[in-house]
Amino acid sequence: MNEYETLLKQIESITRKDLPLVSNLANTAAILFQIDNVNWAGFYLLTDNELVLGPFQGDVSCTKIPLGKGVCGKSAETRKTIIVDDVNLFDGHIACSSLSKSEIVVPLIKEEKLIGVIDVDAPIYSRFKKEEQEFLEQVRDVLVSVIK
User: What CATH number labels 24-143?
Assistant: First the structure.
């Protein structure tokens, strides 16, 4: 079993429908933060047509992100996973931390309704590949299955 399979099993074991969303997301963020070469892992949740900081692990972060702005806002707007090898080259990047060099964002969608995004940053360039995308999309599927 590889690292991502182990982490996914942990997430599956701690997330439940009878728990509040914030609890499921907080514990998931703690597990995602264990990934090698990650300096931020967490969630932004859609509130009043903008993304608002949710549970996370890492340095202090941006509190609100407009839809369409930055990597998180663009992922939420397009409802597609975005991998950015160099955040400095992403048009409209919002620099919440100068330590972050690359980023992956996966939208959380349940029954065609945008809930928010999973956001993971790394302190090195080109950290995220297809393997991380597949893993985080599996994490998304687990989380969506327990969202009421």
Answer: 3.30.450.40
